[in-house]
Amino acid sequence: MQTRQTGRTTALAVALLAMVAAMPAAAQSLDPESAFRGRRLAETNCAPCHAVAQIDESDHPDAPPFRHMANRRTLETLPADMLGDLFLRHAVMPQFEPDMRQVNDIVTYMRTIQE
Ligand code: HEC
Predict the structure, then answer these.
(1) What is the pLDDT of residues 82-115, one digit of tens each?
(2) pLDDT at site 25
(3) How confident is the model at residue 67 (pLDDT cuts 50, 70, 90)?
(4) Which structural domains are found in the chain, ordered by start?
(5) For residues 89, 91, 92 and 97, what is the CA-based torsion angle, rounded to 10 degrees?
(6) CA-CA distance, 56 to 12, in Å (whole number)?
(7) In terms of DSSP H, where are the helices of 23-114?
(8) Which of 37, 43, 45, 50 should be mutated for ligand 1, with most atoms under 8 A from CB?
(9) Which atom of ligand 1 is nearest to the CA of 48?
(10) Which residue's CA lies nearest to atom 32 of ligand 1?
(11) Which atom of ligand 1 is nearest to the CA of 42?
(12) What CA–CA distance (Å, rounded) separates 63 from 97?
């Protein structure tokens, strides 16, 4: 009895470890609350043009889907770019003047959906 229980616990621990190991290294360190806030911000401010989820299409034909952003540019400097002139260089200006926390939240969310 004792042995069976221990065996089951061990099997569960192994399964959990395998799940964590399968996650991309970057995703493990992402703050889920920040990603959640970022998703809300993206849905409100960016989704009119960009695809902001995993299987949607961009409404604006030239706006890159957020899940492909890392293929197009580095995400490392994206928060700083958003606080800088990124939105001024935007094809169409979104009505959005984010603060530091908001740009970090958006990029944290973006990282969770990169393909
Ligand atoms: C009114 C439409 C529109 C809205 C709203 C919009 N975008 Fe864009 N965005 C575009 C288009 C079109 C492009 C591609 C052409 C360009 O780069 O200007 C683009 C490009 C980008 C790029 C790549 C350009 C670069 O320099 O790296 C990023 C990053 C980006 N958008 C982020 C955002 C974020 C974050 C939001 C929401 C806060 C947002 N966009 C809202 C239309 C929009």
Answers:
(1) 999 999 888 787 788 899 999 999 999 999 999 9
(2) 54
(3) very high
(4) 25-113 (1.10.760.10)
(5) -30
(6) 35
(7) 25-28, 32-45, 69-72, 78-83, 86-89, 100-113
(8) 50
(9) 5
(10) 46
(11) 37
(12) 19
Place of tokens 């065996």: 7
Pocket-forming residues, ligand 1, beta carbon under 6 Å: 45-46, 48-50, 60, 62-64, 69, 73, 78, 86, 90-92, 94, 96, 106
User: Which tens digit of pLDDT belongs to each residue from 3-61?
Assistant: 566 667 666 566 555 555 555 555 568 999 999 999 999 999 999 999 999 999 999 99
Residue with token string 């849905």:
43
Q: Which are the contacts of 82, defined by CB distance < 8 A and separation ≥ 6?
A: 98, 103, 106, 107
